[in-house]
Structure formats: C-alpha cells, structure tokens
Design goal:
It is built from twelve helices and no strands. By secondary structure, the protein is mostly helical. The chain has one domain. The chain is globular.
C-alpha cells in the first residue's frame, strides 16, 4: 500500500510543480492553442493558451510510478508496463497531432486516417502483447473473453479479441478527446474514473484467491495491486494538473493528454476484466460521444437539420447561455454519479455473486 500513496503523492507534486514550469516554456516558444472558427465565440479568448500539457501528466505519472517502485524496491509488473506503454504510445500520437496544429497554424492536426492509423498501431500492439506473458497461474495481463465485472465463460479467437481491444481503446481515447473542450472538464472527470480504478484494483487484490480464497474471489486478474498503483499515479497527476487547467485555464492538455488518458481508461477496463463496466464508469464521455453520433447521423438523414445547436454536447449548453463553469461543474456531477453507479455495480456483483 505504500507504493499506492507514494505513486499518487509524487505524481500530484509532479504536475503541481512541473505544470508551472511547462507553462513558462510553452508560452516562450509560442506553443499556443488554436481555436475553431465555427466554435463558440467565447472560446476565442483561449487562443494562444499554452497547449500540450498532457506531456506533464504523462511525465508526472511515469515519475510517480517508477519512483514508488524504486522506493519500495519492487519490480514493475508486466501488466503495469503494458498499460504505461499504451498510455505513452497514445500520448505520442496526440503529441504529433498537437505539434502539427502549432507548426501548420490550423485547428486540425493529423488527418483522421493518420490519427486512427497511429491509434491502431499502438492498440493492436498492446492487444497482442497483453495476451502474452502468463503468470504462474496461466493468466495473461488481458483475457480473450469479453467481460462486464468478470470475464464471460466463452473466449474469442485471438484475432477477434485484438480487434475488440482496438475498438475499446479507439472508442475511449476519442471519447475523452471529444470531452476536452472546456476548462477542466476532461481532466476533472478523469480524476474520478481513475480514482475508481484505483479502488477496483485494491479490492481485486484484497479479494484475490491466493490471499482470500472463496467462491467470490478473483482469480483471473494478473497484478491487480500494481494496476492500482498505476491508477493512483494517473489520478494524482490529473488532480495536480487540474489546479492549472481549471477555469480560466493557464494550460490546455491537448490531444497529447486526452488520447493518453482515454487509452489508459480502456487499458484498465481490459486488464481488470471490467470492459463493459467502462461504459458506466465513463458514462459522461459516452454521452458526449453519443451526442456527436446523433448530431452527425441526424444531420445527414434530415438533409441539414440538427438535434443540438452544436456538438459535442458541452458546446450545445454554451450556445443556449450556460456559463462555462456551470457546465463543467454539472458535468462533473454527472460523471460522479456514473462512477458511483459503476462502483456500486462492481461491489453488488461481489456481494450477490451473480
């Protein structure tokens, strides 16, 4: 448990201190955010705000986790290393996207095919590797079976399982990216989701069959406690970054941050065998993504009509007159309710044994 506290605390300090330093460097280099011309006019005041703050979140997470491992003299697990690979890899895709926006001075960075291609390479590599490296009980970091709060009794062929992993990772990383439109919205919501996965990892470790044998114990998860340490590190990093990203944001995390955080959420869902439960934990991100799907679909079917004034959903409320802070806080409340519901379902399954 010392590793949990060290990882979370050191990551928190890393972003609290490191983000201030990053703001100065990014501002000096002119690495400022570009704003869509078709977006809410209130966003034009954000033009020039230092971006790519996700680099600090990634760096602080790695610093917190690796320092905790060093101080506790414990070796990193295969599950944790693979999850960090996914986290950093998708962050690299986002960094390229952000850098192109700055260099080309346009609000769109990588073309959609190029961005998806980068996500696919990272996700497929992660999916294949996570099905390797079984422990002494034969459990790999990931399972080829679909899961809700535990794995289903039937398994997918390896190729299909990797495609399923790709769908989860691409969908979640893009969902967090869509939510990253208002100051503090995505990063504040991420704190709650990663906090939940910290608790899930702790509970799965405490009810591990090798520690607490019984009919309800968890036997198919590899390295649950080390996954909780990574989750604690990301939670701390997000919490510290929120100090600087809350309204009015002094720095924006950009696609570097949103893609990496979304990928990490997907990685935790896959490795803790709670894949479908991620829809509940990340319910806010799912609603925001659904608003975009509905808007685009209805626009095409109705030949130009819209359901919302603008998608993603948070911008619709901006255009009907809600203040940005009001939207963010109310969306945080929705996220908190969804996360609490997810934890309730997770615990209820263990209590009821269904």
């Amino acid at each position: 448990m010392r590793a949990l506290l060290l990882a979370g605390g050191l990551s928190l300090i890393g972003t609290l201190v490191g983000t201030r330093w990053a703001i100065a460097i990014l501002a000096k280099r002119g690495y400022g955010q570009l704003i869509r011309d078709d977006g809410p006019t209130t966003h034009h005041t954000k033009r020039g705000t230092p971006t790519m703050g996700g680099l600090v979140v990634i760096g602080a997470t790695l610093f917190g986790y690796l320092s905790a491992k060093l101080l506790t003299q414990d070796m990193p697990s295969a599950s944790a290393l693979l999850l960090l690979f996914l986290f950093v890899g998708l962050g690299a895709v986002g960094f390229v996207d952000d850098y192109i926006k700055i260099v080309k001075q346009r609000s769109l960075g990588l073309r959609s095919r190029a961005k998806f291609g980068g996500q696919t390479i990272i996700a497929v590599t992660f999916g294949w590797l996570s099905l390797q490296f079984p422990d002494s009980r034969g459990n790999a970091p990931a399972s080829s079976a679909i899961s809700f709060v535990r794995v289903v009794d039937w398994r997918l062929p390896t190729v299909v399982a990797i495609i399923w992993v790709l769908v989860i990772i691409a969908g979640t990383s893009n969902a967090v990216n869509l939510a990253d439109g208002l100051d503090g919205l995505a990063i504040g919501s991420s704190v709650m989701v990663f906090g939940a996965y910290t608790l899930v990892g702790i509970w799965q470790n405490n009810q591990f069959c090798a520690i607490t044998p019984g009919a309800k114990c968890y036997n198919e998860i590899r390295d649950p406690l080390d996954l909780a340490v990574v989750a604690a590190a990301i939670t701390g990093a997000c919490f510290g970054f929120l100090w600087w990203n809350a309204f009015p944001a002094q720095i924006i995390m950009g696609d570097t941050g949103s893609l990496s955080l979304g990928g990490a959420m997907a990685g935790f869902a896959i490795m803790t065998r709670t894949e479908l439960l991620l829809i509940v934990f990340g319910g806010l991100f799912a609603l925001i993504t659904l608003s975009v799907i509905l808007q685009v679909g209805f626009f095409k079917l109705s030949k130009g009509r819209r359901i919302f004034r603008m998608a993603p959903l948070q911008h619709h409320f901006e255009l009907i007159g809600w203040d940005e802070v009001t939207i963010v806080i109310r969306f945080w409340i929705i996220c908190g309710i969804m996360v609490a519901t997810g934890l309730g379902l997770f615990y209820a399954e263990w209590v009821l044994g269904v």
